[in-house]
Amino acid sequence: MISPTSFAYVADLLRRETAMLCEPGKEYLVEARLLPLARSAGQPDVDGYVALLGRDPSERAKAIDALTINETSWFRDLAPYQAFTEAMLPPLLEARAHVKHLEIWSAACSSGQEAYSLTMLLKENLPPGWTARIHATDVSTTMLERVRAGRYSQVEMNRGMPAQRLVTWFTRAGNEWEVSPELRSMVTTQHLNLAAPFPPMPVFDIVFLRNVLIYFDLDTKRDILRRVSTRISPDGFLLLGSSETTLDLDDAWTREAAGRVWMHRPRTAARPAAAAPAPITAPALSQTGA
Amino acid sequence: MHALIIDDSKTMRSILRRIVTELGFETTEAGNGQEALDVLEAGLVPDICLIDWNMPLMDGYTFVTRVRADDRWRNVTLMMVTTESEHGQIVRALAAGAHEYVIKPFTPDAIIEKMELLGLFAQEVPA
User: Fold this and answer.
1) Do both A246 and A135 map to the same domain?
2) Contacts by A19-28 with C-beta closer than 8 Å and gap 24+?
3) Residues A160 and A135 in one domain
4) Which of A155, A175, A286, B20 has the most other CB atoms within 10 Å of its CB?
C-alpha cells in the first residue's frame, strides 16, 4: 500500500496542478491508478514511482492524467439526456432559428462518452439545415487524444450504449469500436483546467459540467461557476451532476426542474427578454431554503 | 418482475442471476433456446429474457425469432448477452426483434444500465 508520505505528495500535487481534492481514504484509488505507471517506468512499487515524480515532469503529467480519469458511460444517468432533448432543445430551437446553430460545452469530458452521446441526440433531433458543435474540454491530454480518436473498447461500449445507436454510429475497428466521422466532425477538443482562467472560448447555449465540481473545494467551485456564467448565453442552460448544485455557491443562477434533474440558468433569463431596461437593483439576495 | 436467463453456461447463468436478483427480479433459468421456449409454453411470461447466442439444440437468435413470431409474448423484452460481437450480428439480432444487446465480457453495471434503458428498472437519483 502507498505510504502516507507518498500519498501526501500526490494529494498536494493534484491540489496544486488541478485544484482537485484527494482526501485520506483514497489511498487505494491512488495506488490502483499509479501502479500501472510505476511498472511501465520500471519502479518496483508506487512509492518508488512517487519519488520519481519529484524529478520527472513528463511522469508527473502522466500521473495527473491517470489520477483525473473518471469511469463514465454513454447517456450516463439517462435523465440529463432526456432533459437535453425534451426541455433544453425546444426553446433553443426557437430562439436560435435565425442562426440554426448550437454551441455546447462538455466540460471535463473524460474519454468523450458525454460529448458523443450528445452528438447522437443532436443528429436525431435537430431539424434539417441545423448544425451544432460540441466543445469537449478536459485537464487530461490523454483523454483529449482519446476523444479525437473516437475509439472505445467493447467493455466501454457495453456501458449504456443502446444497441440501435451502436450499429448506427459505430463501426468495428479490430477489437474496438470507432465512432463515425460524421459525429467526430461535430466535436472539437481543447485542453482546459477548470480551476485556472479559461482560454478564449465561444459563448455556449448549453454547458454540461457534470460530476466534476465535487472534486473541488468550496472557493474553487464558486470561482468555476462564476467563470462559467461568463461563457453561457443569457437564455442558455447549465447542467450539473445529480449531487451538485449552485445553491449557496453562486446567486447568478436560477434552477428549473426537468424531470429528475435541475437545469441551471443565468438569473437574467428569468426575466422576459423584451422587458424595459432592467432597473438598478440591490445585489441579488442569496437563495433561501437551502 | 421476472427474468428468464438463457445460457448454456451454468457459471454465466449464476452471474446474471445475482445481478438481476439484486435489482429485485425473480429468475428462471434455461440451458438453451428450446428449454426456454418450453418454459414459455408452460405459461411463464417473463418481463425480460437474457439470451446467449451460441447454445446447443436451439441458439439464441432462433429463440428470438420464435418468440417474436408469437403474439402471446409480444410484451416480453429480449436482450442478447453474448460473445458474438460483429456489427452484422448485432444488426441481425435487432432486426429479428431483440431490444438490446450486451457483449461478453461485461461488468454488472453494463447489465444494470441496459435494464434501466429498457425501462425495467429505475436507479435512485439523489435529491
Assistant:
1) yes
2) A19/A193, A19/A194, A19/A195, A19/A216, A19/A217, A19/A220, A20/A67, A20/A68, A20/A195, A20/A215, A20/A216, A21/A215, A21/A216, A21/A217, A22/A67, A27/A1, A27/A2, A28/A1
3) yes
4) B20
- How many domains in chain A? 2
Same domain, A165 and A185: yes
Residues A44 and A164 in one domain: no
A241, amino acid identity: G
In three-state secondary structure terms, A8 is: helix
Domain that holds residue A245: 79-269
Chain B contact probe: residue of A121, A159, A171, A245 with most B CBs at under 10 A: A159
Cβ distance B110 to A158 less than 8 Å, yes or no, reads: yes
* pTM for the model: 0.78
Subunit contact A242:B126, Cβ cutoff 8 A:
yes
Q: Does A172 touch chain B (CB under 8 A)?
A: yes
Reading chain B (127 residues) residue by residue, the pLDDT tens digits are: 999 999 999 999 999 999 999 999 999 999 999 999 999 999 999 999 999 999 999 999 999 999 999 999 999 999 999 999 999 999 999 999 999 999 988 878 889 989 998 988 766 544 4
For each of the domains in chain B, give its residue range(s) and CATH number, in order of start.
2-117 (3.40.50.2300)
- Summarised one tens digit per residue, pLDDT across range A152-176 is 988 789 889 999 999 999 999 988 9
Closest CA to B5 of B28, B34, B33: B28
* B86/A172 touch (CB, cutoff 8 Å), yes or no: yes
* CATH label of the domain that carries residue A51: 1.10.155
Q: Which three cell numbers stand for residue A153?
A: 473498447
Contact B117 A162 (CB under 8 A): yes
Asked if residue A87 belongs to a domain, the reply is: yes
Contacts of A102 (CB under 8 A, 6+ apart): A92, A96, A122, A126, A130, A131, A132, A133, A205, A206
Grid cell of A198 as nine digits? 479559461
**A131 and A12 inside one domain:** no
Minimum-distance CB partner of A167 among B94, B107, B114: B94
